[in-house]
Structures are given as structure tokens and as C-alpha cells.
Design brief:
By secondary structure, the protein is α+β, with helices and mostly antiparallel strands. It has one domain.
Length: about 160
């Protein structure tokens, strides 16, 4: 009868456990998101929780979407949503951790990255042109620097 080396078995168990939640171990369940504004010193609220004033860094759970509000007296408020997207570490789980590792990372939030990674809000003064427009109108704004993550929802065409 062979004697099994307890240290060897313990080492194998530790390696298996380490690989089970690959993304959780590699980049954790929270993410640092930089938040700034022009002008600086604006109040920052993330998902209803105060995070001080800009510039600031917020440590946020990767497994949740977050609503970020930036407010400054005399300026229109800025609001955006940080969304969770599947991290590249999912492949490490599939290769090394299998379904158990994938489940651990999905439950803990380690499977995700928040996007965008940084927010820089340019606040508009109250009373600027677009703050005086009626609320029941259709607004068309043009930007020369579109965000690649935007989704096209329609297109204007020339009427006959």
C-alpha cells in the first residue's frame, strides 16, 4: 500500500482552489474608477452613495451597474451609467477553473469590468442655450467626436 504525501495533496488542493476563481483572484471584485469634472469640486454620487467631490476615485463592485451623478451649483447636473461587461479573464476560468471557477467569478462579480473606466464630465452653466429649450420637444444635437459604444437608434432623411 502506498503512502500519500499530505503536503503534496495539500499543495494540489491549494492550486485547484486558486484556479477556481481566476478573475476574482487576478483583479478582485471591485474596480477603481476615476471621476473628474470641469469645473472641478463638483459633488459625486454613485448609486445614491456620496463619493465626495471631483476629482475622486471610487471603488465600485464589478458585478453591478452604477449610476454616476455629478452636480455643481450654478451648473446643469451630469449623469451617466457605468455598465458591467464580461472580462477577458473568463477564458482563464474556462481553461483552468471550469464551470466551478466561472460560477465563483460570476457570483462574486470578478467576471466583469466596469465601462467606462474613467469619467470626465464637462458641466454646462445653467441658463445655457439647451437648458432653455421646452421639455416636450425633440432635440437633435451634433457631435464631432462620437463615442464608439453609442448605439444608432435612427437616422434623419430628407423629406420629399
Amino acid at each position: 500500500m502506498k503512502v500519500i504525501n499530505v503536503a503534496w495533496v495539500a499543495g494540489v488542493v491549494v492550486i485547484v482552489i486558486a484556479l477556481v476563481g481566476c478573475a476574482t483572484i487576478m483583479h478582485g471584485t471591485s474596480q477603481q474608477v476615476g471621476i473628474g469634472s470641469t469645473p472641478s469640486g463638483a459633488k459625486v454620487t454613485v448609486s445614491g452613495q456620496s463619493f465626495g467631490t471631483t476629482p475622486t476615485i471610487a471603488s465600485l463592485k464589478r458585478g453591478d451597474n452604477h449610476t454616476v451623478k455629478i452636480e455643481f451649483d450654478g451648473y446643469l447636473p451630469y449623469e451617466t451609467v457605468l455598465t458591467k461587461k464580461v472580462s477577458g479573464w473568463v477564458w482563464g476560468n474556462i481553461v483552468f477553473g471550469g464551470l466551478i471557477g466561472l460560477a465563483v467569478d460570476a457570483i462574486s462579480g470578478g467576471l466583469y469590468n466596469l465601462s467606462p473606466e474613467q469619467i470626465q464630465a464637462t458641466l454646462s452653466k445653467e441658463g445655457s442655450t439647451h437648458s432653455k429649450l421646452p421639455n416636450d420637444a425633440l432635440y437633435v444635437f451634433v457631435t464631432l467626436d462620437p463615442d464608439p459604444s453609442w448605439i444608432k437608434i435612427g437616422q434623419m432623411t430628407k423629406a420629399n
